[in-house]
Amino acid sequence: MWTPGSQKALAGFTGKGNKKRNKEYIVCIAHYISVMFTACELGVFDLLLESGKPLSSDAIAACLGASTMGMERLLDACVGLKLLAAEMTLEGALYRNTEISNIYLTKSSPKSQYHIMMYYSNTVYLCWQYLADAVREGRNQYERAFGISPKDPFGAMYRSDEEMLKFMAGQNSVWSICGRDVLAAFDLSPFTQIYDLGGGGGALARECVSLYPNSTVTIYDLPKVVQVAKEQFVSPEERMVKLVLGDFFNDSIPEAELYILSKILHDWDDDKCKQLLAKVYKACKPGGGVLLVESLLNEDKSGPVETQLYSMNMLVQTEGKERTAAEYSKLLEAAGFGVIRVRRTGKLYDAVLGRKYRHVLQIWETRKKSTTAPQETIHKRNVQCVCFSLYQSLILTVCLTKAILNLYLNSCKIKLIPVLSSLTCIFIPEVLI
Ligand SMILES: C[S@@+](CC[C@H](N)C(=O)[O-])C[C@H]1O[C@@H](n2cnc3c(N)ncnc32)[C@H](O)[C@@H]1O
């Protein structure tokens, strides 16, 4: 798990003061992760937060039902990793949480990453043990890790209610640290009717309605996920967050103005992504769009390292991979979406917005705006767009000719009704796309 917490702690671990031994430390990175996960799992950080004062290793071991010898070593290793701080007293060392641990490693913190760490520690890393096999075979490792068919990754992930709950809680964690950034990457306030496809436990949907209070977000997910979301994560009082069950590959997708696909496409290969995006495009209202929330690779795939590691995770767990902005744009374009804009947030996840055009003026306007925005990557849409522009021009020409002809034929007696009716014809096709 590569949280901001672990990044900072690792920077401390390999940084200042350790420079001479930096290279050798590479062999210890796996130990670092294990120490952090174990201290989380045993409840060390929660206990130290709740106690409100530094504690000795004996007291911590007694409270957590662990051996004093084992606990002392674990606590000292956490001090070395800057996850804990120790002060020496006459009675021995007293331990307390560092700021990073309080924020990210305790269960009760609003920015807690506890659940995703536990999911990684107890489930995902069982698949990672077969990483070499995954690289050799190019497929997920559910069969080796759990004796489950690799053909249905979510069937495997949801092999028990307990596993599903752990997965959903884990997926929710990340949005407490970067949900705002991905949702504010574009102004989504014009979209009031939003579907979060594969919205899981609903943490991103909740962030969305809090940032855009005029919007309603409907979480659309598999039936048993929706059931658990209702029972555990989304209370009925949250009236702006709704839940609908469905399978986005096999069932119809309801009409909406905006679809959020957060960490969805990275689960699937290109063919499945195209199939899903084509359905989304068909369901999308004219003028609406789709927001992809994904961790973007650099165009040359040289980084960021977090995304490269996520992509390895996709290999052992799913049918998908992490992609570059150009790769996502290509998938969106293939489905019919237009002027595609990309925003890197500087956090773990980024945002890509594609639009379904309403009419040609909007296309021109959006293109003009996009070219002046340096951060945005512009991808010309496509033959469909050009054809539509030509179609509109043709309609306009025919209607104007018809209107002029009307005027001419009626010479001085100008009949407004046929002229107006001709002009309205111009606008009718605009709502067709
Ligand atoms: C990686 S999780 C992402 C969850 C959430 N969007 C987020 O960003 O935290 C993928 C989600 O897609 C859902 N999902 C997978 N296959 C699906 C399908 N065929 N139809 C609907 N949802 C599906 C899963 O249940 C899960 O909630």
TrEMBL record:
This is Acetylserotonin O-methyltransferase. Residues 128-337 form the O-methyltransferase C-terminal domain. Homodimer. Residues 33-106 form the O-methyltransferase dimerisation domain. Keywords: Melatonin biosynthesis, Methyltransferase, S-adenosyl-L-methionine, Transferase. It comes from the Eukaryota. Its EC number is 2.1.1.4. It comes from Malurus cyaneus samueli. Coiled coil: none annotated.
